[in-house]
Amino acid sequence: MIDAEPVLPSVLVELAGFVASHYLVPLDEVIRAIVPPRVRAVVRRTVKRRRQSRILQKANAVTVAAAVRLEPVQLAARERISVAIARQESEVFLLHGVTGSGKTEVYLALLEEVLAAGGQALVLVPEIALTPQTVGRFAARFPGRLAVLHSGLTEAERAAEWWRIRRGEADIVIGPRAAVFAPLPRLRLILIDEEESSAFKQERMPRYHAPTVARWLARRTRSVLVLGSATPSVATYNAALTGREHLLELPHRAQGRPLPPVTVVDMRKELLAQQFNPLSRELQAAIGGPLARQEQSILFLNRRGLATFVLCRDCGAVRECPHCSVALVYHASL
Fold first, then answer.
1. What is the Cα–Cα distance from 12 to 8, expressed in whole angstroms?
2. Dist. CA 213–CA 235, nearest whole Å
3. Over the stretch 3-32, which tens digit does the pLDDT of each residue have?
4. Is 15 a domain residue?
5. What b/e string do you get for 201-230 counting C-beta neighbours within 10 Å, with b at 16 or more?
6. Which of 91, 159, 207, 231 is most buried as measured by Cβ atoms within 10 A of its Cβ?
7. Is the residue at 260 inside a domain?
8. Residues 85-143 pLDDT 10s
9. How many structural domains are present in the chain?
10. 177 in a domain, yes or no?
11. CA 218, CA 90: separation in Å to the nearest integer?
12. Contacts 24+ apart (CB under 8 A), 265-274
């Protein structure tokens, strides 16, 4: 018995061909990345609907939220993008806004427009940002219309969600880089938040860069691609500055909230002052105040190991890898 329509939409077949040729990987590897194992192994009628993923269960428990009134600069950005969506033209926009500038509210307003016109949307976020709180903001505005694809799904859950998306039962798909292969038949809008994140690069076979794949998909489906970031990648920012893509700025935080104060401490001056503590005097003072008041502080150490390099204080020599000249990372214990 032959299905009335193929399991894999023609757009995704073409997309698989693009990924295979662009990244020089075997086509069958790409197909396996696009189609979940359970979908490949069984016919549609044998795929049973399983319980929703824990992330979506928690997100759906959020009370339906009303739309927030956009500020003038947000409205201007939304209007620019809305015109392209209405014309069904494939255009790329960089929504460059400082942290807290209200990029997500612009996303939500655009999603409302797309869904009202009968279209579908894809939202890509770094895996680490795919939390119940993040998904909850979308689920609260669009209850019952969201599908979530992520690495925490079982094979059965992933297959069930895939078929739900394939049948057009989910209007918005949110997920990490692999969600770029979601089978959305009425795709009109692609949103990529924190587009500069290295999490959008697939390091294992088949290797691919989700924003690059999304650009091809947007052109093929005549969809609008919105790249959101407070610190965009050099390539994306250059494309926007040179006019190859559109630049939309959100220069201030929403509702007039000030940016948090930031102090940069030159640790070389600490050494010259004979201060050998890894914590600067300014940081020690900043931590001491809350401790005296029995309050808490958070120190974020954005690195691997105890120290990213070992420096000789006498001659300035740094221990390096003999093969690639990269500084050796010092670990207190292995």
1. 6
2. 15
3. 566 778 899 999 999 999 999 999 999 998
4. yes
5. ebeeebebbbbbbbbbbbebbebbbbbbbe
6. 159
7. no
8. 999 989 999 999 988 889 999 999 999 999 999 999 999 999 877 777 888 889 999 99
9. 1
10. yes
11. 6
12. 271/313
